[in-house]
Amino acid sequence: QVQLVESGGGLVQAGGSLRLSCAASGSRFSINSMAWNRQGPGKQRELVATITSGGSTNYADSVKGRFTISADNAKNTVYLQMDSLKPEDTAVYYCNMVLTINVRRNYWGQGTQVTVSS
Asked: Is the pLDDT of residue 80 over 90?
């Protein structure tokens, strides 16, 4: 069984920064890709950023130049550095990882709240 545990959310003023972390633990697995998603109030969940096992990254247009996704594969951890935060970044942020144990499967964290005040 694999668990993803997120940390780092909180309340910050507009223009501020936060760093989210998500660590995977449990069964032995290999990492295919990792990502951060978010769901704002009254909105659908959206993909924010992805990183492959090879280190290739991709970002939603709304966060390009402000957010940075990175990973420490040795620690099975993915990070999201969020700078120049805006009130519209307020959301519950979820990490997900595509991991292979015997089969490839998508795993989700429990979510962490990020609130940006104006």
From this structure: yes
